[in-house]
Write a structure and sequence with these properties.
The protein is globular. It is built from eight helices and seven strands, in the order αααββββαββαβααα. It is an alpha+beta fold and 210 residues long.
Length: 210
């Protein structure tokens, strides 16, 4: 990087780009309108962005059958917390700093929906029961009080061509999840032992999805 090339002020930043289009300003809404709600009901996948008080950021993927994020009213969403790795990064961040960002995606849609707000963790039995899958209720729900909502344009997904079948990549071109982790840490075992470990992970997926 050349000396002096870093952008250190918003004035410098704004000077690099043309003014915001009026529509981009208008699209920011304080509540969940009819189309935003329809988008959320269709979405099987959302990314949850959080940050702790020290500024450490985290983005966590959340997925379930379409409509798994509950719309409690036009200012409130509830996201079930399904079984994971128990690091609890997002949940710990929310306790420290309730500001969150959500990015909803729908397979086949190039547009996305962005929602910003403030979250809290709740264990209300009646709410959790509405999120039951396979007779298993989540341990808790992330309830988000919405303060910003806007539809995001299609450019990023069109550039990535993410939904086009001919651009799908073969998962076998990279090692398994566990092997990649072991390669970067303690070292992976031999091929035969690695097959057993990978099979165990797949079995665990089936048992602990909910």
């Amino acid at each position: 990087m050349q000396h002096g090339s870093a952008i250190t002020s918003e004035e410098q930043l704004r000077a690099l780009y043309p003014p915001t289009h009026a529509l981009a300003v208008q699209k920011l809404q304080p509540t969940l309108g009819v189309h935003a709600q329809d988008f959320i009901r269709r979405s099987p996948f959302v990314c949850l962005g959080t940050q702790n008080l020290d500024g450490r950021a985290d983005v966590s993927p959340r997925g379930d059958p379409a409509g798994f994020v509950k719309i409690l009213d036009n200012k409130t969403l509830a996201v079930p917390d399904r079984p994971g790795n128990n690091r609890l990064d997002s949940l710990s961040n929310i306790i420290a700093n309730p500001a969150v960002g959500l990015l909803f995606m729908i397979p086949g849609f190039d547009d996305t929906l962005r929602v910003n707000g403030f979250a809290r963790l709740v264990t209300d039995p009646e709410l959790l029961e509405t999120m039951s899958v396979n007779n298993r209720v989540p341990t808790l729900a992330i309830v988000v009080r919405v303060n910003e909502v806007f539809l995001h344009c299609a450019k990023a997904l069109r550039r990535s061509r993410i939904w086009e079948p001919e651009h799908r990549q073969d998962r076998r071109q990279m090692p398994s999840l566990i092997k990649m982790i072991l390669d970067e840490t303690t070292g992976a075992p031999g091929e035969e032992e690695m097959r057993k470990i990978d099979a165990g992970l797949e079995e665990d997926y089936q048992k602990t999805m909910y």
